[in-house]
């Protein structure tokens, strides 16, 4: 049986996804592999198919016992002889499993990395023929990653004790150079085939819905409307607080939608039941905090709506990525209001355990700009992960909207704004800057601003136009938003960015609805 036949026979799929066939064939040719694939990209099959086709036994090292059990259940349901050995298993059960492995009953064994340090497991492993060791979530080996797990460092010791070195491969969704090098060096992969399939999830449509006043009402209206338009779709709605989860669930229940809820404040047994109801399609929609989702493999999630903006792009990518794992079209919608981003900044500032506050505040700003950018949303996300694209995707709400926009040259206005901010030494926030430029009278300690050289220079522009232009200039790093401390309070002010000097600025363009063009023509 070859890889393609195994795909059809065991899993019922007709074709491979990006990268899968190459990875599988490399392993079958005896090569070590390091594979970087996005969440939902289909990593599991890349080690499960070789595990079935190689002559000996495969160990799959996986960090979470709950995940492990799910994977084993899924494989057993397909008639594949897989099992796991973990601390939830009694000693007699374990002995029995060892016996079945020795008799070649099981092909695939899931273990947590800590298991490789148990003497009885080591002794047993020396007696069987291990063809391959696959390390899932391999970024846990690196101190650079967010989820460093010390016992991953001992995987190599274990391998070295074995009478014969199996094929080793490592899988992760985290792609930074440092992490990749750590994985190769620490696990001592031999001339590995490195396969990076990239972060793009082509079947996901990204959408921003901006809400600026009557925020809660508008968000709820949007969601009710959306569910009404997609009556049979399964989806996740992420909220940032337990309170919002409760409130929204209540509202949606009253509308008689099929909805349940999940957050860490709900009794564990009920939480588990709610999760099962959702995964087994008894209930269509789950409203949840970010406590929900780790290790959830529900393939037919058709939408992920974020009621609030998450803190970082990594969070958004991972949470929204739970949509469309089956490869069919799905939507990722962010309900954006700048007040949610300000709340996140507060949380970051007040988190005393934070090691790197200023870096995290910067990361937060990058997330926040996702809600404001005029550029392709997909490219914005991919760019963050180091994948540069020049062509817009034509499959996100910005691309759709940009097709109805013209870009207008705003370079002169941009220069005026920069000069104005220069003249006030970056001491004021966006509202005051706009007031100066539009020539609005100011009183009290701000009255000297009425004499600013740039006072009234953009009289003809609306408040919204200037605000949009400043936002865009921040995004392109001509300006930056900084928090100034004054009497123990922080105030957001606008300073000059790093992308200057000013005479090099040209071609700052702004999206203006086409309608306006016809209006003025
Ligand atoms: P990852 O571990 O990379 O997040 P999984 O291995 O859990 O992703 O795969 C995600 C989903 O895609 C699963 O439901 C899996 O069955 C499905 N899948 C994987 N490969 C294919 C394929 N070639 N064709 C169709 N579906 C696939
Ligand atoms: Zn796009």
UniProtKB/TrEMBL annotation:
GO terms for biological process, alphabetical: DNA recombination; DNA repair; DNA replication
Keyword annotations from UniProtKB, A to Z: ATP-binding, DNA-binding, Helicase, Hydrolase, Isomerase, Metal-binding, Nucleotide-binding
GO molecular function: 3'-5' DNA helicase activity; ATP binding; DNA binding; four-way junction helicase activity; hydrolase activity; metal ion binding
All residue ranges annotated as the Helicase ATP-binding domain in the record: 24-193
Domain Helicase C-terminal: residue ranges: 210-374
A single GO cellular-component term on record: replisome
Domain of life from the UniProt record: Eukaryota
Family according to the record: Belongs to the helicase family. RecQ subfamily.
Name of the featured protein: DNA 3'-5' helicase
Species in which this protein is naturally found: Anaeromyces robustus
Portion of the full sequence shown: 1 to 521 of 1194
């Amino acid at each position: 049986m070859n890889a393609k036949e195994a795909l059809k026979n065991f899993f019922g799929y007709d074709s491979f996804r990006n990268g899968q066939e190459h990875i599988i064939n490399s392993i079958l040719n005896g090569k070590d592999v390091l594979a970087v694939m996005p969440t939902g990209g289909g990593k599991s099959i890349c080690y499960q198919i070789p595990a079935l086709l190689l002559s000996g036994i495969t160990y799959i090292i996986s960090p979470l016992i709950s995940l492990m059990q799910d994977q084993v259940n899924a494989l057993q349901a397909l008639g594949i002889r897989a099992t796991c050995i973990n601390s939830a298993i009694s000693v007699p059960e374990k002995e029995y499993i060892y016996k079945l492995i020795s008799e070649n009953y099981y092909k695939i064994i899931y273990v947590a990395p800590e298991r490789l340090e148990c003497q009885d497991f080591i002794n047993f492993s020396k007696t069987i023929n291990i063809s391959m060791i696959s390390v899932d979530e391999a970024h846990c080996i690196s101190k650079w990653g967010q989820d460093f797990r010390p016992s991953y460092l001992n995987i190599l010791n274990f391998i070295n004790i074995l009478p014969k070195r199996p094929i080793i491969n490592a899988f992760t969704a985290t792609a930074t150079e440092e992490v990749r090098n750590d994985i190769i060096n620490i696990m001592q992969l031999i001339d590995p085939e490195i396969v990076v399939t990239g972060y793009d999830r082509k079947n996901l449509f990204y959408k921003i819905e901006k809400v600026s006043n009557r925020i809660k009402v508008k968000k709820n209206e949007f969601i009710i409307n959306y569910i009404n338009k997609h009556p049979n779709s399964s989806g996740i709605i992420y909220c940032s607080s337990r309170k919002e989860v409760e409130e929204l669930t209540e509202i949606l229940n009253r509308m008689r939608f099929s909805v349940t809820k999940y957050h860490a404040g709900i009794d564990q047994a009920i939480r588990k039941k709610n999760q099962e109801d959702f995964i087994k399609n008894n209930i269509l929609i789950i409203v949840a905090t970010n406590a929900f989702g780790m290790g959830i493999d529900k393939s037919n999630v058709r939408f992920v709506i974020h009621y609030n903006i998450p803190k970082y792009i990594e969070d958004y990518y991972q949470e929204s990525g739970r949509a469309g794992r089956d490869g069919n079209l799905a939507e990722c919608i962010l309900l954006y209001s700048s007040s949610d981003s300000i709340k996140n900044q507060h949380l970051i500032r007040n988190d005393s355990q934070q090691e790197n506050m200023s870096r995290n505040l910067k990361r937060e700003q990058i997330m926040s700009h996702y809600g404001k950018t005029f550029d392709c949303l997909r490219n914005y996300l991919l760019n963050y992960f180091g994948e540069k694209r020049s062509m817009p995707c034509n499959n996100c709400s910005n691309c759709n909207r940009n097709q109805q926009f013209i870009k207008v040259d705003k370079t002169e206005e941009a220069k005026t704004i920069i000069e104005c901010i220069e003249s006030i030494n970056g001491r004021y926030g966006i509202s005051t800057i706009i007031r100066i430029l539009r020539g609005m009278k100011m009183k009290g300690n701000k009255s000297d601003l009425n004499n600013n050289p740039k006072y009234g220079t953009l009289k003809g522009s609306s408040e919204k136009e200037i605000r949009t232009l400043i936002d865009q200039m921040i995004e392109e790093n001509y300006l930056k938003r900084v928090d100034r401390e004054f009497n123990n309070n922080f105030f957001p002010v606008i300073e000059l960015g790093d992308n200057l000097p000013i005479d090099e600025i040209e071609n700052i363009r702004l999206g203006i609805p086409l309608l306006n063009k016809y209006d003025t023509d």
